[in-house]
CRISPR type III-associated protein domain-containing protein
Amino acid sequence: MKQAYQAQWHASREVATRLVVTGTLVLTSPAHLGNGDRGAHVDLPILRDTLEDLPLLQGSSLAGALRNYLLAYEQGFQQPEVRGAKRMGLAELLFGGVKGDSEGEQSPLIIDDALADFTLAEIRDGVRIDGKTRTAQNDFKYDLEVLPPGTHFPLRFELLLPEEGDQATKLRASLALALDGLQRGEIALGARKSRGYGRCAVATWQVVEYDLRHSHEDLLAWLSAEHPDWGYQPAQVHNSLGVHAQREDKRKIFRIAATFELATPLLIRSAEPLNDGDHQPDVVHLRDGTGQPIISGTSLAGVLRARAKRILTTVAAGQEEAILNSLFGRDMHKRSANEQPSASRLIVHEAQIAGGRTLVQNRVAIDRFTGGAYDTALFSEAPQVGGTVTLTLSIHNPSDADKGLLLLLLKDLWTGDLPIGGTSSVGRGRLRGCKATIHDTGQPERKIVSDEGQLKLPTEARTVFESYVVALQKAKERSSEA
């Protein structure tokens, strides 16, 4: 009996220290933390706590996002996880084995569920556009509930550490890397992360360390953490973990951040009315929860995909569907035995429009036969006029052909040839490029500026960009040879 007890004791984790990390997560873009069911008043509602009726961020959702971040950091985007005691990575060390792994261990990190600070939510419209007719497809109109930017979630992590040593140091470093990703806003939560949803950040952390082996005061402080009136205080309180993971960042990203002026009025329809006194326009431009006009990531991605297909049909005929599916993700509604849905490698951020104003315009439908106005066909629209916007587009694991395609899309946006939003047939949605910064992993940062309508960029950058477009054109040659 004694031997069995000793064997069980040696097999335990022997927790010597508990690290409790707290911070406030703030959404910087809308987030859809869905409950997986269809709602009574909205097609895709958010998840709420049944007792408090407050928006809920599950600890399991946050753990999945952090684990995926560590995997991408160590092994690159969309790479299979390498498991095993001899090659244990930071993700497996911190979050334990995955389902079905008989040799995996339980995660030493405890992540609490978090409730938002208020119950208000936005309603966003969603629609699928037919690429040929450029109109909405039947049965593909829906709405979803999203949490607005500025929503706060109080986070709490608790890390169980063994006696100080190599294992404890690695666990601290793994958690420090994951928390650093949250602090820098590199981790997104919820659905539609590749379309600008779920961006978030944490400004500061508070780290409380409880030494359970050598300090009775710390043990009592941990036991009475929810009862501060008992008078027990931990000995060590910090604003960081004090360590950093010495790992190479394996993520490969091609990112363009381009600033544009609105050359013409812009109208992306909103489901929410415009608070403009007694007069309410029939159609208003989309705004976020702070009241700022925006260009949504879903709208921008839709027009980029449609234009990319036209470009590929010209320069890479025969490969357009394969390149589109690889870059924008494979359509989940066209599932087959050989083609499963895939995530988008193109990440499009939602962007606020700075400056400008809303202008209400009256329109009327004309009968082409009589030349007169249709009855009951007078309506008003409130597009966004003027202002500037910075659009951020990123590609994970980019090939040179991917980079060339994104640069061609940037050119069409820059020159106003690619309109965004609705009613583009009456001249709306055109942009005018001002400047752009291009980040390419392993390459120096390059800039493009517009000086009185003329583009300025270094000769070396021009040569590199042309090589990317040539790589895209060679996709057609490879298709012909095949």
Summary: The chain is about 25% helix and 25% strand. The mean pLDDT is 84. The two ends are 71 Å apart (CA to CA). Residues 12-205 form one domain.
